[in-house]
TrEMBL record:
Protein name per Swiss-Prot or TrEMBL: Small ribosomal subunit protein uS17
InterPro entries per UniProt: NA-bd_OB-fold (IPR012340), Ribosomal_uS17 (IPR000266), Ribosomal_uS17_bact/chlr (IPR019984), Ribosomal_uS17_CS (IPR019979)
CDD domains, sorted: Ribosomal_uS17
SUPFAM superfamilies: Nucleic acid-binding proteins
Similarity annotation: Belongs to the universal ribosomal protein uS17 family.
Organism of origin: Aquibium oceanicum
Length: 83
């Protein structure tokens, strides 16, 4: 099964080798027929501490790295190659 790749914005980089990425999704509400925006924060592994707050990054599913970290930051080239 292929691993999911999501695009989001870094909202925190305070932890060592970890960034918090906010991923926003848009969908039409089934009853109200209005476009709704929902967001969720994911903790992602950033080995080099290269990404800062405000950066747009791609994250990919991976094995569990810690209690609540099971995503890894990937480069744009890697994300396009797998898409």
């Amino acid at each position: 099964m292929p691993k999911r790749i999501l695009q989001g914005t870094v909202v925190s980089d305070k932890s060592d080798k970890t960034v918090v990425v906010k991923v926003e999704r848009r969908f039409t509400h089934p009853v109200m027929k209005k476009t709704v925006r929902m967001s969720k924060n994911y903790k992602a592994h950033d080995e080099a501490n290269a990404h800062k707050v405000g950066d747009i990054v791609f994250i990919q599913e991976s094995r569990p790295i810690s209690k609540d970290k099971c995503w890894v930051v990937v480069t744009e080239a890697q994300a396009e190659a797998q898409a």
